[in-house]
Each structure stands twice: as structure tokens, then as C-alpha cells.
Amino acid sequence: MRTDALLLQTRRHFPRFDINKVKITPIEKGGSDRKFYRVRCSSDQSLILVKYNLEREENRHYVEIAQFLERHDVHAPRIYFHDSDEGLIWLEDLGERDLFSHRDESWLVRRAFYESALDEVRKVHELPESVCIEMRQHLPAEFNSSLYLWEQSYFFENCLGRYFQVDSAKIDQLTALPAFSEIAERLSRLPRVLVHRDFQSQNILIRNGQAYLIDFQGMRPGLAQYDLASLLFDPYVDLSPAERDELLEHYCGGKPSSEYLETLRLCAMQRLMQALGAYGFLGLVKEHKHFLQHIPKAIASLREVVAGIEGLDLFKNLLAELN
Prior knowledge:
This protein is α+β, with helices and mostly antiparallel strands. 48% of the residues lie in helices and 14% in strands.
């Protein structure tokens, strides 16, 4: 949709705005199929306008999830208007500073931001099942064994096959390892909570020292450790093992059990495989080449994670050979 058409739509839904003063500027944002714009109404007033693909079902659920989060006091952008026929959402502008943009500051500063983010996502994880039931119709498929296996296949196809050009016979050997399906089954048997699904530094805005969650349209029932793994093993940011431990203890209110840590490790494997598959797909199929630069860091983290998982020796050997 052209900018002048967006301007007319904004004027239609916000008639008080002076159309001659409104400026609409595109915002570059990740690999999403949605388009983002900053609508500046005056020097001190602005909105974010999102144009989404009507054919993608999860895009339609963003508004319902945002309103659900607001009802339960989870920090997220407030929805001002939703035009479901045109696929347009006008929402609160929380600024441009995400957690990622603070990556070069001292740990003392960053830790407070990370803890704020963990406090917000914990609110989501702790919502009682009776409350979450109302959201089921607005959420994508829950994390089950099929979804975990899909994440693994996404990695094999788009990272190993497409990016590293690993021989298909070798990939077939990996996919046949019993450990992968056993991990998927094991994780699928654990009790689920609501999870963000893409809880990483670029999806957490920081305003006035407080964290706000964005890009939560993929929210679904899953494991809290999946969200934790997304943040603690985020390929976009370097966190030391000691920093990860500090954040994990903050979230858990003390040292987590060995069983909890083992589930976190398995979730980290899944999350990193999913991220690496996305980098290969977005970088090579969608031609968003900047995603490819994150592959080496994510592969290094995946090596670290799978080192402690039994039954994956063939996989560990292959990862060690990747450059």
C-alpha cells in the first residue's frame, strides 16, 4: 500500500489529525512479511502503523493478543485502531530502543533491562490455565512433538542443506537419529504455559527503563524454558555463562533444579535450530542477506548446547566441521 493511501486511511480513522502535518515514514524491521511505519502527528506525538498480510492467519491474531496482554498488565503496545478489512493496525509508539540496541552497555545497565524483560514474560508464563483458555481460538498450534520435529527439519533443510550445502545423504543420517524424535516427544509431554515464541532482544522494547513485549503474534502454549532459551542463547547478543546464570536465577527466584536445566538445554537446541533454519531461509530464499551474518554465532551456541545432550554424537561431529 502506498504512503498516500496510508495517509488517507489514517485521516479517516483519526479525523482530529491535521493531514498537512502528518508524516509517514517506513521502518525496517527484521524478516517479517508485515510493513511498519511511524506516523508522526506532531513533534511530540506519533503512532506506529502496521500493514499485515491478510492471508497469514497469525497476523490476524496480533490485536486480540495485545488486548489480552493489556488486560493482564503485561507491558505491550496499546492498540488504537484495527482495520481488519484492510489489514491495518495503529498502535502505541514505544520508541526505537530495543534490548538489542543496548548490547554494548555495561552489564550493570543491561542486567536491569534483561530482568525487566524476564519479569514481563514471567507474567505471561504464570497466567492460570482458566485465563488462557479464552485465548486458544486466537493462537497458532501449540508446541507438540510435530512442531518440535518441524523445527528440526527446518534447520536441516535451510541451514545445513541450503546454507552449508551438506550432502543430502548425511542429512538423512542425522534426521534418522532416534535422539531427535525422543527429544520432541519428551518436550511435548511436559505441562504447557503461554509462551511468547520469539522472545529475543529485538522483540523487547525498552522505554523509561521498562521492558515491553512486541512481535508476540506467534504466542502459543509451550514451555517457559523455550522463551528463556530464546533470550539467553540469543544469536544477536553475547551473554557470558555467568550472565546467563544470573538471569536464570532472577527468573526462577533461585538456583533451578538439574531437571529444569536439562529441559532448558533441550529447548535451547530446538530454538537455535529454528533460528538457524530461519536465517538460511530468510537470507537465501527471501534474499534478506543480513540474516546470514548471525549463522556463525548461532552455530557456536548450538555446539555448546548439544555437547551436553546424549545420543547426538553424529550431529556433534558434523557441527564441529562447519565453518
